[in-house]
Each structure stands twice: as structure tokens, then as C-alpha cells.
Specification:
The protein is an all-alpha fold. Helix content is 77%, strand content 0%. Helix 2 crosses helix 13 and helix 6 runs antiparallel to helix 7.
Length: 350
């Protein structure tokens, strides 16, 4: 018996809901594990006292720095998109903030798809092409993590040889992951047919309908890789990436006086940022609950910060990274009359 189009749609929607449900529970389980690691052996009275004793005036510059990073992201994205479309900084900024807000509210990092969708709706460009430039962004961010990790290894902010040894192992793994990503993008741009054959081979076990959809998306995705042939654009994007990561480090470093932390160098703050960036790559509940907290606190403790102070600092750093940008993203969703349900549906099918 054949299903009509309405029944097919219902089956597809049901399947998507099941996938999202499974993803949600797995991610939530991972967050619970990391939260346990973060909170175990914590003296909650001491934690509350540390939070009460903090000087919150330092939150003002820290929040300002964090929000300015979204503008830098928007400028960087503008250069990545320029070979295919001249997008306005206003639409790029709002789409970026919307994407991050959705990442903070929904599981599975679907905000990256939402970001491409929001810009596609505002600028009338291919959403797959926009998403391709976001993938390139992530490659640049991964490259900066590797380069900053080299700086930390050359000028270690801690004395533990064991920690340095572990970082070397992480550097090799990251190099392989991002090196593989760069190689695939190069193949996709310059040897599209060969790359398509590789993708077809990987997709062989999947249903034809699903693989055909992916191959169709790849065609428009390739258009978004035009920036890879523009040396000047790539150089500017690289400079913006450095500025972005230095601002991220400053956002951590400038908050130390709020908790009377004296000791970690700027390179130490780079180490904390790198650790957060690596650990939050692990699937988790929305807003990087658990993974962010464990990574930040662990990094500070390795730098010699008292455990209670490190964990109270982490709670505030997490809050100023998540809450202001989420509220701003929700404002742009409301002002743009975008349906949250529509964004979620697009992302889950993306």
C-alpha cells in the first residue's frame, strides 16, 4: 500500500521528532555527567559566599567584550560571503546572534543551520551556500585553536609536565581533525567530481531519497566555497579570527579581579579559552551546560586557582556568555517576525 504525500510528510516529521528526542536525551545525559564532575565535592556554602563576595562591576566590560565579538563574527562572515553576495552588516549581525541564541536554547548545535536560514531569508541567497561559509568559519576557528595551543605549549602557564604532555596529544588530534576538514573542502572546491564520488560512497548504505538530497545540497554548498580562491579575503578573515580569539581571551582575563584572582597570565587565559572550546565540541544540553563548566573550572584549577573560586568564576563567566546574547537573539527573532517553530523545523531538516 502506497502512502500519499500527506502521510509521507507525517512519517518524515515523526522520524525527525524521534531523532531530535534521541539527540536531546543523549546530549542531556552527557551534560549531567559533566555537571556531576563540576559539582562533586563542592562546599555549596563556600560557593555561595564566593559569589556574594565578588565585585560585579567587572561584569560590565566583560559583557561588552562578549557582545562585541558578535560584531567581529559578522564582519568576518561578510568577507567570507563577499565572493557570492554583498550582505549587509545589519543582517549578518542579527543572523549571527539568532544562530547563537538558538544554539543556547536547543540541542545538537542546530543554531548553525538556523543562522544560514535567517541570512538566506533576509538576503535572498542560497541557504546551503551561506552554510558553507559557516563551515569555513569553523575551520578558521579550529586553526586558531591549534595555533594558540602551540603558544601555550611554547610558553606553558603551569608547571605540570603531565598537563603539557596531554596538550601535545590534543594538538595532534585537533590537527588531524581540522586538517582532514581542510583537505575535504579543497577537494570539494577544486575536484568537485572526485569529492562527490567520495560522498556517494559514504552515503551508499543510506536510502536513495536521503543521499540524493545531500548531493543536491552539496551543489549549492560548493558555491559558498568561492572564498577559498580569494587570497586577500582569506587573509582578512584570518586577521578577524585572531582578533576574535584575543577578545575571547580578554573577556576571561578581565573578569579575574571580580573574584580577586591574581596569578593567571594572559597565556593562561588563552589556555582556559582553548580548553572550553575543545570540551564544548562534545554534544551536550543547550547552552553547553556541564561541558563549559567542567572545562573552565578545570583550566583555572590547573593554573593554580582555588577550586571554589574557580567554580564560582565559571558560573558567572557562563552566565555573561549565554544570557545577554540569548536575550538579544530572541529580540531579533521577535523583531524579524520569525517563527521559532519554523526555525527549529528548518534546522532539524537541515
Amino acid at each position: 500500500m502506497k502512502l500519499n504525500s500527506s502521510q509521507n510528510s507525517n512519517v518524515s516529521e515523526s522520524t525527525q521528532k524521534k531523532k531530535l528526542s534521541v539527540t536531546y536525551w543523549i546530549s542531556s545525559g552527557i551534560s549531567v555527567i559533566f555537571l556531576y564532575l563540576f559539582l562533586r565535592k563542592v562546599d555549596f556554602n563556600a560557593l555561595i559566599n564566593a559569589l556574594k563576595g565578588a565585585n560585579y562591576i567587572y561584569l560590565i566590560p566583560a559583557i561588552a567584550i562578549n557582545l562585541s565579538m558578535y560584531f567581529i563574527r559578522a564582519k568576518r562572515w561578510q568577507y567570507l560571503l563577499e565572493p557570492i553576495h554583498n550582505a549587509t552588516i545589519k543582517n549578518l549581525f542579527s543572523s549571527t546572534v539568532i544562530g547563537f541564541a538558538v544554539n543556547h536554547l536547543l540541542p545538537a548545535r542546530i543554531g548553525e543551520f538556523v543562522r544560514a536560514y535567517a541570512l538566506g531569508e533576509k538576503e535572498g541567497i542560497s541557504k546551503s551556500s551561506a552554510f558553507a561559509t559557516i563551515v569555513i568559519e569553523r575551520i578558521f576557528d579550529g586553526t586558531l585553536v591549534i595555533l594558540f595551543l602551540i603558544v601555550v605549549l611554547l610558553f606553558p602557564p603551569f608547571s605540570s609536565d603531565v598537563t603539557i604532555s596531554k596538550l601535545k596529544g590534543a594538538w595532534v588530534i585537533l590537527l588531524l581533525i581540522f586538517g582532514g576538514g581542510v583537505l575535504f573542502l579543497f577537494l570539494l572546491k577544486h575536484y568537485t567530481l572526485t569529492a562527490s564520488k567520495i560522498v556517494k560512497f559514504i552515503l551508499k548504505p543510506l536510502p536513495n531519497r536521503f543521499s540524493a538530497k545531500i548531493l543536491l545540497l552539496i551543489d549549492s554548498f560548493v558555491v559558498g566555497l568561492d572564498v577559498l580562491g580569494k587570497g586577500r579575503h582569506l587573509f582578512i578573515v584570518f586577521i578577524y579570527s585572531i582578533v576574535l580569539w584575543l577578545l575571547g581571551t580578554l573577556g576571561i582575563h578581565i573578569l579575574y579581579p571580580a573574584f580577586y584572582i591574581d596569578g593567571p597570565s594572559f597565556i593562561g587565559s588563552i589556555f582556559v579559552l582553548i580548553l572550553i572550546a575543545i570540551v564544548v565540541m562534545i554534544p551536550s544540553a543547550p547552552s553547553y551546560i556541564g561541558t563549559f563548566h567542567f572545562a573552565c573550572a578545570s583550566g583555572l584549577i590547573l593554573l593554580g586557582v582555588d577550586s571554589i573560586i574557580a567554580k564560582s568564576f565559571t558560573l558567572i563567566l557562563w552566565a555573561i556568555n549565554i544570557i545577554p546574547s540569548t536575550l538579544l537573539g530572541l529580540f531579533y527573532i521577535w523583531r524579524g517576525r520569525l517563527s521559532f517553530k519554523e526555525l527549529k523545523t528548518y534546522a532539524s531538516h537541515g
